[in-house]
Structure formats: C-alpha cells, structure tokens
Specification:
Blueprint: H1 10-28, H2 32-45, H3 50-63, H4 74-90, H5 94-107, H6 112-124, H7 128-141, H8 146-158, H9 162-175, H10 180-203, H11 215-220, H12 233-243, H13 248-260, H14 264-278, H15 281-309, H16 312-339, H17 344-356, H18 360-370, H19 377-390, H20 394-405, H21 414-430, H22 434-447, H23 454-460
Helix pairs in contact: 1-2, 2-3, 4-5, 5-6, 6-7, 7-8, 8-9, 9-10, 12-13, 13-14, 14-15, 15-16, 16-17, 17-18, 17-19, 18-19, 19-20, 20-21, 21-22, 22-23
C-alpha cells in the first residue's frame, strides 16, 4: 500500500482510477478474481478512497455468493496473513498492516479481525471514512460488542459527528444499563455539540462588517459564500466535480454528504449521475436506496399532513402513493434477489413487502429462506407467522410465533415480543384455550400495558373457564 501519511501522487490517483474502471468491466462479466485484483490495486494506490474499498468488498462478497463466511479452510489460509498483521502492527507500519489485512479479506471479506486491522491502519493514516467503513463491517457480525461500539462512538466524537455518536452510546447504554459513566459521556457529547454549534454561529459574525445576507443580496449574487477551498465540504466537492466531470468519486461523496444533510432528492440525483458515469452496480444500488428514502419521506410527510388536516381525500392520495412506493420497492428488491441470491436481508425485505400486499404465496418461501440467517431469524419467523395466518394455516402460524419467542430478546425487541404473544393469545382464544390466552395477554401487558386491545381481551376472559 502507499506510504503511511503521504497523499497519493497525481500519477497514483490516475492509475487507481483506471484500475477501478477495469475492475468495473471485469465485475460486469462476473470475472470476480480480476475485479478483485483491479479494485485492490486501486485501493493500494489511493488508500483513502472509500469508493475503491466499497467496490473491492462488494466484489469479494459476490465471489463467495454472499455466504457470510468466505473461502473454505480459511483458518489455514489466514495463518500467514495473521503473522504479517502482527509484525506490521508491532512496527506501526500502517501501509503493511493495511495491505496484509486486505489480503486476508480476499479470503473472508466478513472477518472481524481483518476489518478491524484495516480500521486501525486507516485511523492511523487519518483515512477516517475508510476506518468507519471497516468498523461498520466488523460490527455487522458483532452488533452487541460493547468494546467495538465504544471504539466507534469515540471515533465519531473525535470527528465531531455528534449525532451518530450519541446513537451508538444509546445502544451501549441498553447493553450496559448499570454503567454510570455512559450518562456522563452522553452529557459530555451534548455539551461538545452545543459548543461546536455556538462556535460556528459566532464564526459567522466575527468580521465587524459582516452582516446577514438579505434577499436582495442573494438575488444579486452579493451574499457571502464559501468560495475558497477548504471552507465548506459541499462547495469543495462541487468544485472538484466541475474540474473532473468524468470522475464518479466526487459525486458519490457529495451524494453521501447531501443525504446526511437530509437533502434526499438532490442526493439521489447526484448518486444517479455517479452510477451512470461508473457503471458500477453497487453505486446504482446506493442510488436506488436514496431514491426510495426520498419517496418514503414524501409519503410519510403527505400522510402526516393529511391526518393533521383530517383530509380524507388527501389521505387516500397518500395511501395510493404508498402503494406505488411498495411496488417500486418490490421491483428493486426482486432484481437484487437475483443479483445477490445468498443475501437473506434482501429476501426478508422482499418477503415483507409482498406480505404487505397480501401476496402470501410469493412471500412465504422468501421468509422461510430468511429464517436461516441468525441475524434475521426472529423477525422473519414473526413475519412468516403473519403470512401463514393470512393463508389460513393457523397451526403453522402458531409454530412460527412460538419458535420466534425462543429467539426474541424482550429488552431489545419489545414490540416483536408483544406482537408474538398477542398473536398467540388470539389463536388460543379462538381455540377456546382460555388459560393459554390469558398467559399470552399477560406477557404482553407486562411489557406494554397499552398494546392494542390486549387489556380488554384479558378482562373479557375473566369469566371464561
């Protein structure tokens, strides 16, 4: 990999860009080994470029059909890599550490140790977007690892990304509710956030002659703007796009930035441009995700306004748009299920959308496949139970709800817990198994006293045998 802290030369950047483009061509022909080689070369020449890492990891996962485990006999194959990692870490040779970890990820792109080694090297070289990407990958297998969550939260705080840092500390608090230091840490971050905001606001008025721009100033082009490099990340990226109109990378970064700012429509348009320039499937899918997020935000806002105004016609229009959104989601997810046949998350999402349209015959096989993924099993079994209920197969529904309860953590999945027990209570009530129904409704009320009509139903069972 490139030297530890020196930025890549213009020549290296050009080589990286061409290698990445060759990788896209190889990937389109499903030549995964060549694609991985080209993406790896791109990441070697420009190690701080997030897009190259994303493309590399995507190709590696496709090579193994998204199996979540990588190559066979990986333990033996990774032994030499782990030796290189240990040696590089001992010498603080971050470029060597990065290179060794990436070699390991060619064997198992989901490996926690390898992803964290990439993160260590990236942090040391101040490639923070790559570091976050690598830690995210490690967390996918270790969602309740307090040490890993704490590391990520601290990194985000250091980068002054206070909101996502607070979200992570909230997760940590759920996992370690008795730790008094967490509340202090969250208060500290809130304070840092306010100080940063106050400093930014004060900075806008530090020049004695600077005044707030009027509408006339803006219309005349006289309002102050961030014209200089480094003054504003969004302006810098737009300037880079003007200089390099054929390079998709600045557009990808700009789209991500706009999305974080809540400018969903503009983010989607920008990511679409990047996808068209690159021909990269992963970028196209990110565009689709942004486009769907924008459509969902519009539908939610429309429904909220209709309910506030108590306008039935407006609400009907919102529901029609929601149905169109579901149809679009199904179209996209169907295509993804074909492109990523081993990705159970896609199958689960597609199954739940089909279930929402009561297309149970198509939903059930997808949800059954999704139950094989431990991360999705409880959600998938509950959805599967609902599908069997709609299909009139009550014994099969009862089995799925009962199996789901064995996997559900009531602390983290209270709504799922209540949904399961409520459904089992209804099934028991229908079968005149009143004591069983009472037990299930009591479980619901023990977690959420206002859940649906569980309280009324439990009261109504008081006179039954």
């Amino acid at each position: 990999m490139a030297s530890d802290h020196a930025p890549p030369s213009d020549k290296d950047r050009e080589i990286a860009k061409k290698s990445w483009q060759h990788g896209n061509g190889a990937l389109s022909k499903q030549n995964f080994d060549l694609a991985i080689q080209m993406y790896y070369q791109a990441a070697t020449k420009d190690p701080g470029n997030l897009l190259y890492r994303q493309s590399l990891r995507g190709a590696e996962r496709k090579k193994y059909n998204d199996n979540g485990t990588g190559a066979s006999m990986k333990g033996v194959k990774l032994m030499g890599v782990k030796g290189r990692i240990k040696k590089a870490r001992g010498k603080s040779n971050w470029a060597e550490l990065d290179g060794a970890a990436e070699e390991g990820l060619k064997i198992d792109p989901w490996d926690t140790e390898m992803n964290l080694a990439v993160a260590d090297a990236a942090e040391a070289r101040e490639h923070f977007e790559v570091a976050k990407f690598a830690i995210d990958a490690a967390l996918a297998r270790n969602k309740q690892d307090v040490k890993l969550l704490t590391r990520y939260a601290n990194l985000l705080e250091e980068l002054e990304e206070f909101e996502p840092a607070l979200v992570l500390w909230g997760q940590i608090k759920k996992l370690t509710p008795d730790d008094p230091n967490i509340d202090r840490k969250m208060t500290q971050i809130h304070t840092s956030k306010m100080i940063a905001k106050t400093g930014a606001d004060e900075g806008k008025g530090t020049k004695a002659m600077q005044q707030e721009a009027t509408a006339y100033d803006e219309a005349s082009g006289l309002a102050p703007s961030a014209d200089g490099p480094g003054q504003d990340p969004e302006s810098d990226l737009r300037r880079q796009i003007r200089k390099q109109p054929e390079d998709p990378n600045p557009r990808v970064r700009l789209a991500d930035l706009l999305f974080k700012k809540g400018k969903l429509k503009e983010a989607a348009v920008t990511m679409k441009e990047a996808a068209e320039l690159s021909g990269d499937l992963s970028i196209k899918e990110r565009y689709e995700d942004m486009m769907l997020a924008d459509l969902k935000a519009e539908v939610d806002a429309s429904k909220q306004k209709a309910r506030k105004l108590k306008d039935e016609k407006r609400l009907e229009r919102a529901k029609k748009h929601e149905a169109q959104l579901t149809e679009k989601e199904i179209e996209i997810l169907t295509r993804r299920a074909e492109n990523h046949p081993k990705n159970m998350r896609v199958k689960y999402d597609l199954g739940t959308r089909l279930l929402a349209r009561r297309e149970v015959a198509q939903a059930i096989p997808l949800l059954q496949q999704a139950t094989t993924d431990n991360r999705l099993e409880s959600d998938a079994r509950v959805s599967l139970g609902e599908a069997f209920l709609l299909d009139g197969k009550r014994p099969l529904a009862k089995r799925q709800f009962s199996n789901a309860l064995e996997k559900i953590d009531v602390q983290d999945q209270s709504d799922l817990f209540c949904k399961c027990h409520y459904a089992l209570g209804r099934l028991a009530e229908e079968a005149k198994e009143f004591r069983e129904a009472e037990r299930h409704y009591s479980e619901v009320l023990g977690v959420d006293y206002g859940y649906r009509d569980a309280n009324e139903r439990l009261t109504g069972l008081a006179g039954e045998d």
